[in-house]
């Protein structure tokens, strides 16, 4: 059974860093585009970052550009989101998702991990 499991969330202060992990089981992440999304209370889910499965190209939302980095470890079948210089507005539940076709229709989703940034 294909599954994604996020980890690494927590409570941090303004300016701190966190690294989120997204481990896949039941399928190989290398063949998928991977996206990180987040949803804050009372807000719609938004795309944070994604990494192509074909050419490795990356995308970052303007709000996180220069602070967040997405990466993939094929040996561990895991994708990471390194988050630096965290701000209170980064507080949200973060989800990873996998898209086989690379067309934005994400077939697999994790359960989410809470990130809370206090100031």
Describe the structure using short key phrases.
single chain, 119 residues, mainly beta, 7-stranded mixed sheet, 4-stranded antiparallel sheet, 11 strands, 0% helix, globular
Structural class call reads: mainly beta
Largest sheet, in brief, is: 7 strands, mixed
Strand segment tally: 11
Number of helices: 0
Order of helices and strands: EEEEEEEEEEE
Query: What's the Cα radius of gyration?
Result: 13 Å
DSSP strand (E) fraction?
A: over 45%
Outline the low-pLDDT stretches.
none
Question: On the 0-100 scale, what is the average pLDDT?
Answer: 95
- Global morphology: globular
Q: Portion of residues in helices?
A: under 10%
Distance between the termini: 40 Å
Describe the structure.
- Strands 2, 4, 5, 6, 9, 10 and 11 form a seven-stranded mixed β-sheet that branches.
- Helices cover 0% and strands 51% of the residues.
- The mean pLDDT is 95.
- It has strands at residues 3-7, 10-13, 18-25, 33-39, 46-51, 58-60, 68-73, 78-83, 92-99, 108-109, 113-118.
- By secondary structure, the chain is mainly β.
